[in-house]
Amino acid sequence: MTARRPILAVHGGAGPASTEGEAHVAREHALVAALGVGWNVLASGGRAVDAVEQAVASMERSGCFNAGRGAVVDASGAVTLDAAIMDGATRAAGAVGAVGRIAAAVSAARLVMDRTPHVLLVGPLADDFALALGVAPAAAGYFLNAGGGSASGAVPGTVGAVALDSAGHLAAATATGGLSGKLPGRVGDSAVVGAGTWADPTCAVSATGRGEFFIRTAFAHGVACGVSGLGLPLAEAAGRALADVVALAGSGAAGGGCIAVARDGTVTMPFSTPSMYRGIVDGSGAPRVAALADPRF
Amino acid sequence: MTARRPILAVHGGAGPASTEGEAHVAREHALVAALGVGWNVLASGGRAVDAVEQAVASMERSGCFNAGRGAVVDASGAVTLDAAIMDGATRAAGAVGAVGRIAAAVSAARLVMDRTPHVLLVGPLADDFALALGVAPAAAGYFLNAGGGSASGAVPGTVGAVALDSAGHLAAATATGGLSGKLPGRVGDSAVVGAGTWADPTCAVSATGRGEFFIRTAFAHGVACGVSGLGLPLAEAAGRALADVVALAGSGAAGGGCIAVARDGTVTMPFSTPSMYRGIVDGSGAPRVAALADPRF
């Protein structure tokens, strides 16, 4: 089998048009950092599933997005995280929902995938599982927005990554703090395999936006159905799935976006919101990042 | 619009070949009772989403299946329930995962759908939500298998229902106690919209079996993709999706099954296990139930 040129794409969430100031610059830097972390894995012949985990964990640590350290709070003022990861080669998957005592939800999701026969663990018992297996705890003061802390991370900004590795395998991962002001215990699409996260041998998808609409359209699996079932080009499959979300959400709703990669290395990054933080690297040049519409993407 | 003849199908779980004795008779009676409860809704012009909720709640109350009162215990000896409901007309959906203090998980899922902007609530906070909105608590001793109680319900036996109502709308609901001996906090496919439960304007699906494989194949949405995307007959779409589960699970794994109804009233109830408790009623005669392969189904 001929080695493929690897490719990695990341997102830092779909959101409003305002993309200026220090927070904007910090987010673009965090995207570049995440691309570097993930690319190091891929460039040395590593696996897509490791690249997406490490890229997402980097964005969770950054505090620049609504995930990990920068996660927004729920209606009770608490931070709870969702995440999922899926290895397209095997369709192995792991996810956690509504965890609140660990620093990196994607690492907990990876442990669910690798170390249990299950796909989804939720709530305080999922925290217990992750902590017992060595995931770093969220120390007091770790979450920037909890307990009246800084609001620097309080921007819609789920994070995700999709990758194709040199063996031709795909993977996707997504992590989020969820909807600001959500009911306690709410889990969004990021942790729902087939909704916000999906990978199989034909494509890998990570979504961002109002999660309930992505669950109700089985968004990420819908993209895969378009590619492998209907034989659509990746961009058309993703565009159709996003149009379905927008139609279901109705006028006035913000919608969202996604990043997706197909096994031929094609990448698409559509969004219906004014902006979506996103970036891509494929070894042909420096990583590229953008927030607004950009002809290079 | 011409009124359609309503139809309701239920299942009480895919499982082993042993379908004898008092427990078997009790399960068949419980299926008949659930069909009666749901049919009363449909025959009076009621909605599919109400019929599936009430049919599933009836099976949860019966104690005859691995759901509600009869739910099996996890690795810690605790009972936790998962459930989802979806209205095909609007693709509104609600679900709960890993709840342990309420008697009927499907009713909690219905409240998530009707009374919140969310789709999925999990863990102790989902119990709090449901209890606050009036879902009956599980009194001490309610769960037959908790705390060393009777093992009468300790048979694989997720429950589910799919319906077509006289307005031509579809709905699906599923409830379970999950995998016996599961890790605490594990949520299975029943609560994952697109995996164990799905309804849209073209079909409604409720699955049973080893949930992780149904999540990793996005099973129920896969059936819908086959019907609405590829234009397959319902039985072929469901058969393909089940074959995908069996292939992913590998030889020796038990697989599972599903019930599904299309908007033309076609029903299919395939299973790869030796038995699947199931039943159907359409007003043309008495309800029919079976556990083993049966040419009438």
Question: Explain this structure to me?
Answer:
The structure is a homodimer of 297-residue chains. Chain A has helices spanning 21-43, 48-62, 105-115, 123-132, 211-216, 219-229, 234-249, and strands spanning 7-15, 81-87, 92-99, 120-122, 159-164, 170-176, 186-187, 197-199, 203-209, 256-262, 267-268, 275-281, 288-290. With 297 residues, the first copy, chain A, is α+β, with helices and mostly antiparallel strands. Chain A has a single domain (7-285), classed as Glutamine Phosphoribosylpyrophosphate, subunit 1, domain 1 (4-Layer Sandwich), CATH 3.60.20. In chain A, the strands form 2 sheets. An 8-stranded mixed β-sheet of chain A has the order 4-3-2-6-5-1-12-13. Chain A is globular, with a radius of gyration of 17 Å. Residues 150-154 of chain A have low confidence and may be disordered. Chains A and B meet through strand 3, strand 4, helix 4, strand 7 and helix 5 of A and strand 3, strand 4, helix 4, strand 7 and helix 5 of B. Strand 7 of chain A pairs antiparallel with strand 4 of chain B, so a sheet runs across the interface.
